[in-house]
Amino acid sequence: MKDCAFCRIVARESPADIEYEDDAVLAFRDIYPKAPVHVLIVPKRHIPSVMAMEPGDAEAVGRCVLAARALGEAKGFAARGYRLRVNCGPEGGQVVYHVHVHFLAGGRASGA
Ligand code: AMP
Ligand code: ZN
Q1: Where are the domains of the chain?
Q2: What is the fold of 5-105?
Q3: pTM passes above 0.90
Q4: What are phi and psi of 78, to 5 degrees?
Q5: Distance between Cα 102 and ligand 1 center (Å)
Q6: Furthest-apart CA pair in the chain: how many Å?
Q7: Which of 96, 98, 99 has most ligand 1 atoms within 8 Å of its beta carbon, as the pocket-test mutant?
Q8: pLDDT tens, position by position, 3-41
Q9: What φ, ψ does residue 32 adopt, rounded to 5°?
């Protein structure tokens, strides 16, 4: 998708600090981190939102969660834990309409 900020990162047309990559997934640091470690995990294929997900998208989104596990292990949070967050739609706080999982770690989790 030409007009999608995260597709441009996946295509290496925009810069990003890449933390993890495999055939289905790219993970890069959030430019406005809300935790000591804040990484965004995106499917390489454009899926706008959980709210637009179709059954055939389940594998790609599930791979993002598996990538979070790999990131947690690589960054030393496997035992301490971390938070995964997926914002969905306007009232869910979604700003970028390419599905992404926020990986937040290194701070004390509070609230829901
Ligand atoms: P959301 O509110 O769930 O849509 O989250 C979008 C996130 O993307 C925010 O935390 C932004 O700081 C982050 N963000 C937006 N543009 C970029 C970018 N070019 N590189 C890295 N992170 C970005
Ligand atoms: Zn996209």
Answers
A1: 5-105
A2: HIT family, subunit A (3.30.428)
A3: yes
A4: -60, -40
A5: 9
A6: 39
A7: 96
A8: 999 999 999 999 999 999 999 999 999 999 999 999 999
A9: -120, 75
